[in-house]
Structure formats: C-alpha cells, structure tokens
Design brief:
The strands form 5 sheets. Strands 7-5-6-8-9 form a 5-stranded mixed β-sheet, covered by helices on one side. The protein has a two-stranded antiparallel sheet with strand order 1-2. The chain has one domain (about 35-340). It has 9 helices and 13 strands. The chain is about 25% helix and about 15% strand. It is α+β, with helices and mostly antiparallel strands.
Length: about 350
C-alpha cells in the first residue's frame, strides 16, 4: 500500500467551529474572572476582620492595664491630641513609636510630625487603598489665626480605615449635661471601664470600618479624612447618627451640626456592608440594609431627632433607637440577637 493512502486528510476549522470556541472561551472568562475577584475580595475582607480583631484585643489589654478604655478625644493647647489608636501602640508591639509622641502638644505640632507621618499596615483595610497613602499636609494652607502651637509648614500625614464607637451622636462640649449624653465607648475626654458596658461585650460594637477611599481628593482627605494619630470625630471615632455607608445617599450637609454623613458614619469599600468588631472580639459583617432610623432628606438628619437650645439631643416620642443605634450604645438596656443584623 502506498504511504499516501494512509495519510488522513487535513482541513482547517470552519467558521462555525471558531465561533463556538470563541463563545466557550468567553463563557469561561465570564465565570472565572468574577469568581477570582470574589475570592480576592473575600480574602481582603478576612484580612480586614483579622486586623480589627487585633485592634480590639490591644484596646482590651489597655483597659486591663489602666482600668479604663483610652479617651476618644483629649486636648492640649485647646486642640485635640493623640487618638486611642495611638494609646494602644504599646499593646501592638509599637512602644518605640508610642514614645515618639509628645502629649504636651496638639497632634499637629512640630513635636508630633513623626507620629503623624508614620503609616501602619495594621490600620489599613486591604479593600481601602487610599488608607495606605502618605500625603503632604501644608498647615498654613488650612489653619488661620496664627496659633503658635501649630506646625506651620509641610509634613506628611497617614490614615486609618478603622474608627472607635462613640455611640449614637457626638457632643463637642465641656458642659457635663451634654457630655453625659455620650453613650458609646470613645468620645471627648472619655474614660470608660469595661464594667460600664452593661449591654454586654458581645452586644456592643468596639470598632468599625471608616473608609478613606470614599473621599474624593487629597484636599478632602487632609481636611476631613481619618488621620490615625488624631483623636477626633470623623478621624478615629464614628457615630451611628447616620446609617452604614451613607455616601451618595444623604445630602451633603452637616446633619448633626459637626460632620457630613459620609465623614461621621461607619463605611467601607466592601460590597454590601462593613466589618465591625464587638468588645468581646467577635468580628461580624454588618449589611448596608441593617435597620437604622430614617433620615429626613431636608435636614440630612434622623427624623424625630433634634438638638435643643441647650445643645442636647432630643428624640420625639415616636422615635426610638433602631438596631444599628442599639449596637453602638454601651448601657441602653437593649439587646439585639445576631439574627437582628
């Protein structure tokens, strides 16, 4: 038999076969890429939760050593100084960095430029890329009035993705009656022992996410962003006055008299919600849809919640705390089961 008779005939792929192959490749890509992205986000969310848990443990160890939680806001030279995230540094194996803080000066003084410009991975959520930025702060660009104790010059600042729970609202006042309304864990000149959390350690949020990446630009980040060293509402503490992830859904107004919603609220870059850690160390994912009080679109504030002439927050008889608000109070005699959120 001749060799040529044993050869199989060869032919190219038909147009239909090529189109089928292209369709199959497209189908595989459509399945694999979202799955890969989902797996990556799941890993980031897990890392975020782990970092929150470490922060919570360090804060609990601080309370065990000192008898109270660190203050959310303290003052030097009438300006706020180091945050609770600074106070817990020795319990995060960062004693050297802690020793660089000068507590006799406000946090934006020349004496504290080292601490302001140090970026810590532990304080960054992997899904919040802007948190890892170090940006140049030009103090003479933002501060007016000739305060001698402020650093007039250029120095770097660093951010955090996490904030401590101040409760349902923030009171910026020396008035004991107003400060007495503070129902969270970190607020102006606070000193809360763990024993004061009578709602239960498993029912009270310790820290929540507070995303830097939702802010639009460098100026907005520097003016209102979460600087990890600065103890202040909107920097390292949040309230439940606004719902979870309100950015884009609430009018750009100062609804509580101090912060725009997306500055004062808990927020994240995770799809659908935020990570929080409770005082007992349990990390949970809170959905954007968690029950929260209704926001009046005209006032950009909760319906039925007003501030009276004395500066006290007042609730109308028909207004009560919803699930999100309940989880941020330390002693409201309310308990929400896990099925509630």
């Amino acid at each position: 038999m001749r060799a040529g008779m044993c050869e199989q005939s060869r032919r190219g792929l038909t147009l239909i076969e090529i189109l089928v192959v292209i369709a199959l490749v497209g189908l595989v890509i459509a399945i694999v890429i979202p799955a890969a992205l989902s797996a990556r986000e799941s890993a980031r969310r897990s890392t975020c939760g782990s970092r929150l848990r470490q922060i919570a443990l360090a804060t609990s160890n601080y309370a065990d050593s000192w008898g109270v939680l660190p203050a959310g806001v303290q003052f030097a030279q009438d300006f706020n100084t180091a945050s609770q995230q600074v106070a817990i540094l020795p319990f995060l194996d960062q004693a050297v960095l802690f020793n660089a803080v000068n507590f006799d000066w406000c946090i934006w003084a020349a004496a504290n430029t080292t601490i302001l410009g140090t970026s810590l991975d532990l304080y960054h959520c992997p899904s919040d890329p802007s948190a890892a930025l170090r940006e140049l702060f030009s103090s003479d660009r933002f501060f007016e009035g000739g305060h001698d104790f402020l650093y007039y010059g250029h120095f770097p600042i660093a951010y955090t993705s996490y904030a401590g729970n101040a409760g349902t609202w923030f009171q910026h006042s020396r008035d004991p009656a107003r400060l007495g309304q503070s129902n969270g864990l970190f607020y102006r000149e606070s000193a809360i022992p763990l024993s004061a959390i009578t709602d239960g350690l498993s029912n009270t949020i310790f820290y929540a996410e507070h995303a830097v990446s939702i802010l639009n630009d460098e100026t907005e980040r520097i003016l209102e962003g979460p600087q990890w060293a600065a103890g202040w509402y909107g920097s390292t503490i949040f309230t439940s006055f606004f719902p979870v992830n309100p950015q884009g859904s609430i009018r750009d107004e100062y609804g509580d008299g101090l912060c725009r919603a997306f500055i004062g609220a808990a927020s994240s870059k995770h799809p659908g919600g935020i990570n929080v850690v409770f005082v007992d160390g349990a990390v949970k994912f809170i959905k954007d849809t968690i029950d929260s009080w209704e926001i009046d679109p005209v006032r950009a504030a909760p319906r039925g919640v007003i501030r009276d002439a004395a500066g006290l927050f007042q609730l109308s008889p028909s207004t009560g705390f919803h699930v999100w608000q309940v989880l941020t109070t330390r002693a409201g005699n309310e308990v929400v089961g896990a099925s509630g959120f």
